[in-house]
Amino acid sequence: MPSRIRLEDRECPLSTTVQHVGEWWTLLILHDAFDGCTRFDQFQQNLNISTSMLTARLKTLVADDLLERRLYQDKPARYEYVLTERGRSLRPVIVVLAAWGNRHLKPQERSMILVDAASGEEVEPVLVDARTGKSLDDSEAFVFAAGPAASTAMRSRYTELRSRRPGRADAQ
Description:
mainly alpha
């Protein structure tokens, strides 16, 4: 399958992440994996996905090291698909996506909520800066900038964006 990522975005972590998990079925399969599904028939039944689509998505998830394919039965050979550490690290992303969706629904319209496993109380996930505890929702307080490995093009992009921000002395 040809890459959908633009040449100039190959170094952008958002673009490369979307290349791995930006497909509809991929996110739903990962969600089911977080809920404990590991077997082909479980995914197929829960998602009502075609055999060919599920096979293709699972192969991609294994190739991307998000799931590991493990033999659980010899005769006939049967496999399960288990989250890798890399795959497990995507859970906060799935949680925040679901929370974002729920924020735009009336409480009675939400079909799935996140709860504390021990108390059953609904929780509201938020993204915060680990150092300060400040919410990352504020796009004026927290902005993207070129990182240490940024190319000249990426550095230029963020220099230009910084100069256009309101309140900057160098924005003219």
